[in-house]
Amino acid sequence: MLSAFTARPIIELKQRDKSKIESILAYGYEGDRVLVGLNTGSLRIYRLNELPPSSTSKAPNGKPPAGETESAQVGTKPAAQDGRPASSQASSPAVKPTDLLREVEKFSPRAVEQLAIIKEANTLVSLSNYAVALHDLQTFEPLEAPLPRTKNASTFAVTSNIVKDPATGIPEIVSRLAVAVKRRLLLWAWHESELSPDVGEITLPEAIRSITWACATRVVCGMNSGYVIIDVDTESAEDIVGPGAIGGAPGSQSRFGAVSNAGMGYMGLGGYIPKPLVAKLADGELLLAKDINTLFIDDTGKALEKRQIPWQAAPESIGYSYPYILALQAPAKGSLEVRNPDTLSLLQTMSLPGAAALHFPPPTVSLAHAGKGFHVLSERVVWKMDATDYDSQVQELVQNGKFDEAVSLLKMLEDALLKNKTETLREVKMLKAEALFQLKKYRESMDLFNEDEVHAPPERVLKLFPRIIAGDLSGVPEKTPEPEHEETDGKTNGDKKVDVPPEVSSPQKGGGFTKYLYGRKPNPETASITSSKKDDDTASIKAKPADEPSQDEKDLLAAVHELNGYLAGARTRLQRVIDPETGKLRPRKSPSGSTEEAFNSLLASSKDEGNEKLEQELQGLFKTVDTALFRAYMYSRPTLASSLFRIANFCDPDVVNEKLLQNNRYNELVDFFYGKKLHRQALELLRRFGSSDQPDEAAPTLHGPQRTVMYLQNLPPEMIDLILEFSDWTLKADPKLSMEVFLADSENAETLPRDRVLKFLAGIDMALESRYLEHIIYELNDKTTEFHNRLVSLYMQELKDKPRNEEWDKLIERLVQFLDESGKYGLSRAFAMIPKDDPAFYEAQAVVLRHMGQHKQALEIYVFKMKNYEKAEDYCNRMHKAQDAASRPPSRTRPGSSEGEDEVEEEAVPSIYHTLLSLYLTPPPPHSQNLSPALDLLSKHGSRLPATSTLSLIPDTLPISQLESYFRGRMRSSNSLVNETRVVVGLRKTELVSGQALLLLGDGLPGGQGGRNRRVVVSEDRVCGVCHKRLGASVVAALPDNSVVHYGCLNRAQSGGGASGGLATAQLGAWGRVGGRA
Hints:
five-stranded antiparallel beta sheet, alpha+beta, 16% strand, four-stranded antiparallel beta sheet
């Protein structure tokens, strides 16, 4: 149980005093004044004294106070607190808890049943003799006794609040008094200590038995049939209806019932009807209680989704003292129950003999947590209930295993009431998670460890696991193997009993992983099959069953599965503050929430030395998390280990290497080596398994060069030595696949040092070198002359070495295509390498000669050696297009030139067709004249052959009819030039007319350019745009934009000196001059 409150008797009536306490009122600074109303009608005023912390007081029966008795019951304090016997403490002089200051004997003619104050008005309100009276709080003289219209009053309630005036908006203190007179509810109000003459009256269906203010303007009234909430401003009443069995619709019967004239009472118990109780809680909530039924509502009367309080008996009175719900049982029982309003659990039960009522200070006296003290009264004694320190309460709940209650209490309390609320809440949640782990609730435990408000340190979580998972961080003792025939008493050496908190979960039968974790002897039935110790990591963890895993292994496997999620979350949080790629701290950012609180607190230092130390600590923490995650993957899901290695990680290389080799996980080991940049070790391992003749059973997927090729493709160009070293065996095993290291469409392959790659490939196979050269020249557009020359040499070498077949023909075609398209190779060198007398290389010679500009020699090869006239014509067509695009202007004729001039210029430059025609008609010896291709050339390209030079080549014996197509083409070409010239002349005339019209008449647009016939108005006030002087009778010049300047300022305007100089310069030809007077 919890010691939330301690009871201290402050007022005790003497035995000879026959009076009985009916009501009390505590007010003043921290409640140092206590008014006690007696059944005789007297009023006693007491002053509360501050007692020394070590002093103790005794109850009237000579026993220790009830609060100390309760403390002794829960085990927080012994009866003797300072080491002396209790009798010696009782005999020592003690300070009186209260002093009687005054007694007003005739305060009321009958018993004083209820007391309250209106502090702003300095008024004491009392209920006595079925009427409400007002007295002065200082002199206790009656102000209005009784208050009019309060005859037969049964109860009242007072509230004070700061309310804004609806008319002025100025806040003021408004106090209200609500009095229940049978079915009527009477309302008085004090505005700034002045009693308002207006009295409100609201009539309800039946007699009112309890009144509680819900807020400044709403009051809850309890009746036999149910509850109603009243708005005092609008005087409207609304029934409070709860869901389900708590309450029903108006007019229907429920546990509370609805407000109605014919509401049914509580049946049974001789017609006894329990009193409807109401208590105001925190945050605008209220608790309604009738018999053992409860309902939580807000201050508007709406029911809240909360379960009922599990009371065993109907309480006599209820109340709220921050942050607990209080319930006082009947005086015959004399017990006070303290409950958590969140969980509704019973936290403390205090024995207070004869206690009959509770008294709470008004909520407006001070803050909720400052007014946490309250009073309990019986007929003879008044107890002051003091709250214990909240940190002590939390510690006591944790010691008793009440983790949920401790978490709930911490969430309800304000930060200022605890030493460190955030850290305390985090610690309690981690303790709860550890307790859940003991109960084998691994998922709930890890989820709690991984909460945003917790983020438990990985070291603390890993202590719960054995060495096979946590390594040196393990806090689980190792089991030592014992002989099977040895009899034990059920416990091994060093075992300790683990107390399972009853609140976290119901106790479970111990065994399996729980026994292992906390040192209990394993089940004798499985002890005989437990394996012996192999090494530090695997000692005493895995038993080796004959058919299925032992219970120990099942429990550990389930725990490790949940640990994976926690470690992944911890890794994600670490990545937010440290970059796993570089191991450096990330740039600091402002915290966005509680997720980064633990790390941001470490990053608060601005010194470089502090940052370096923090960086090292975070790297060590990252190493712990990643290594533990690797161990967990290897134990639970070995296939997931490779996913950890494909990203930047801080795994311990020694641990990883040992574990993977032990389990023959060579694929994962390769991934790990790659992540750690241990590329030589990875490639040696791949070569070891890949170059073998037969696949190795331990790593069949590593056989062959494929995995090595994939690995080499991911290496950067800086590691060219390593790439070339380990590409050697792959190229020999599978050249086509291995060439992807150099030919792949990736940045790494494209940025490799090409000269070194060529030199390496040349030493292996000339075909591989040729393939790489083709890739970098055609695909990567490399213009290096050396590479182009090398490719020509390789082509020629390959053509000389290979037999002539279909493949050889394809290769010669590739050579000719390369010679034709490249143009970056050495022409003389390439021409020297080409055989001169081999017909297969004639075209290659022609291509090289074309690039050298030797067009006649190239055409001689096509005409005389190859006798391929179509290729000769195609050659001329290509050259003509190239020359025409390079030298011909955009227009066919220049301005001012004539048709004759163009023809003369065209005939001055012989075309490539003229060269071919001369080879046909005047061939060098020993070749003869060839008229057929010559006539075909004349018919197709006659327009491109000048008449003078062409006709001189034609034999005189050739009939003129065979030249018809040539002459026809020439005439059409001439006519086209004439027509084109005429069209151009017409267009230029149109352009000239448009320009003259624009100059003379302007463009006709508003604000646009004016013509020479425009007018400019020069007034007396108009100034020059350049010198800013008045124009007067001076000679002026008008600019195209209608601005006017002095004629002497015109040159300055042209040079840009004036406001419109730029425009004037641009349109100088459009000026007009005006001379005259203004």
